[in-house]
Amino acid sequence: MSIATSEVAAPYAQALLSIAKSKDSVDAISQIATDFLDLIKESEGFRDFLTNPIANTDAKKGVINQVLGDDANTEMRNFLLLLVDRGRIYLVEPILKQFQAQVRELKQTVLAEVTSAVELSDEQKESVRQKVQEITQAKAVDLETSIDPDLIGGVIIQIGSQVLDASLRGQLRRISLQLGV
Predict the structure, then answer these.
(1) How many domains is the chain partitioned into structurally?
(2) Is the overall model pTM greater than 0.90, yes or no?
(3) What is the average per-residue pLDDT within 133-148?
(4) Backbone φ, ψ for residue 8 (5° rounding)
(5) Domain extent for 151
(6) Which of 6, 58, 80, 94 has its CA 20 to 30 A from that of 14?
(7) What is the DSSP string of 14-70?
């Protein structure tokens, strides 16, 4: 995310957090934000449609309403529709990511980005979560997982700027450095 994007996204993220706090719905809005970001990540067509400056605003609003469903949180719906009206919906991803970072800060939760060679089981995720909680002394840990078959095995855990490389690829690289290969 560029500095310019971050500077534009920050006030929107802060506004969404203020709304969520005032309505005592931080958890509900945070969950919707997570689901919305997952959808953007999974569906390139959805992301492209939202970020397309030529796409009709009414069509974007219709799709957002359809995605959220009839019983969606009113504040979140209004916020996303406001982004469409203001021509800022193309920033929805950085805005929601900043919002989630602010919620984590509020709740003293850390984000651990875990990259593994294969999908982690629920037990493995819980083990990683506990280990990260031990290391960081955070009240809670959110995991964001991704798969990279090039790791061969093991995991890489990134917590902020700290990286814990327990992958086979990383171990092989360290061995090759020690051997001077």
Answers:
(1) 2
(2) no
(3) 90
(4) -80, -40
(5) 109-179
(6) 58
(7) HHHHHHHHHTT-HHHHHHHHHHHHHHHHH-HHHHHHHH-TTS-HHHHHHHHHHHH-T
Q: Are residues 44 and 79 in the same domain?
A: yes
Q: Which of 105, 129, 148 is the last residue of a domain?
A: 105
Token pair in block for residue 9 = 């996204």
- Are both 11 and 95 inside the same structural domain? yes
**Quick check: 141 and 107 in contact, CB under 8 A?**
no
User: What are the residues whose beta carbons fall under 8 Å from the beta carbon of 5, sequence distance 6 or more?
Assistant: 91, 94
Residues 30 and 87 in one domain: yes
Q: Give the distance from CA 140 to its chain's centroid.
A: 16
**180: region left, alpha or beta (phi > 0 left; psi from -120 to 50 alpha):** left
Interatomic CA distance for residues 16 and 29, integer angstroms: 9
User: Could you read off the pLDDT of 66-110 as tens digits, one per residue?
Assistant: 999 888 889 999 999 999 999 999 999 999 999 999 999 998 889
- Say how far apart CA 19 and CA 117 lie, in whole Å: 39
pLDDT per position as a tens digit, 21-75: 999 999 999 999 999 999 999 999 999 999 999 999 999 999 999 999 888 889 9
